[in-house]
């Protein structure tokens, strides 16, 4: 399901509605605003008062400063068709990215091998 138009069959990178809208904030680092790198490679320090993603534009509400997964207007977060993380119940991350799963270290992985 596309995070921009919420329709199935394509992602936000291929969304016709997002491609028509040039101001959606794609192609920039959401942390520092640079067009030279993505957030994965960003080393900039940010002011905590600005939030984690000050240059991100939410695909749900259109406001700056947060991603759609943490938008107050998007109660389903990353789970457009419903559901949540199976470890902690959050809609802001997938099970593979769950901080509680990472805190347990290899225990979860080792129990799956048994």
TrEMBL record:
The keyword Transferase does not apply. It comes from the Eukaryota. Residues 2-16, 57-73 form the CCHC-type domain. It holds the Pfam family zf-CCHC. InterPro entries: ZCCHC9, Znf_CCHC, Znf_CCHC_sf. Keywords: Metal-binding, Zinc, Zinc-finger. This is Zinc finger CCHC domain-containing protein 9-like. It comes from Gekko japonicus (Schlegel's Japanese gecko). The gene is LOC107120554.
